[in-house]
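Hey, resending since the last one bounced:
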Amino acid sequence: MSQPITPFETIRRTNQTGNESWSSRDFAKVLGYVNYRHFQAVIEKAKTACSNSDQPVEDHFVGADQMIEIGKGGQRAVKTVMMSRYACYLVIQNADPSKEIVAQGQTYFAIQTRRQELSDAEIEEQRRLAIRSELRTHNSQLADAAKDAGVIEPRDYAIFQNHGYMGLYGGLGAQDIHRRKGLKKSEQILDHMGSTELAANLFRATQAEEKLRREKITGKDKANKAHRDVGAKVRQTIKELGGTMPEELPSVESVKKLEAKARKTLKKPKS
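The structure tokens again:
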């Protein structure tokens, strides 16, 4: 049985790229605000809540012009605010609670926001699984390139890998990262990285392999330096883009648990 369409869905707008938004003018009418000026005060409270949540206000509240009917078929442009779903959630939390439609809106946007959070979490899981799998492949290829450069013994390869980490993590080696992330002795660093941190390490691995092969680098010391230089270059790029340094990113649930869940889902018989 399909869910009934709420007034909030009726006024939802979607552009050509699929992004959704709500006009504050339409929203005010649905909530029963006869005087739009009164509703503007609610928007300002919502903007403050947005800022206090460390969310960019300009990403969720965008000023725009809207054409309205003025009688006899005429129209005129008025100022409105195009609001994201999150903005609507904040607005509804700051609206007049005595209005029945406000209570309905609080329930609607709370549910929809939670659904979006779940969807985002699922997307992050899939990204982690894909990048971690690809990183395993490229680490194997990097090991082959390092071997060709003269990094033969397991101990030497561990040192080689450590140089890559030190370049990317601002001088921190594998053990330093392990401690900083608060991981247990048996836990692997790569298994507890989010997709952003995994992607940075994947870039480090692929570019280090390319550099070793392209420049035909030979000798353990030269290979170690090349790996550290690549890591440092990736770190510099993250800095220039305004990104979070990898050592500052939080550790997350082991990707092995996600892999186990994925295998279980594949084995689950279809109903």
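The two ends are 19 Å apart (CA to CA).

Sorry for the duplicate.
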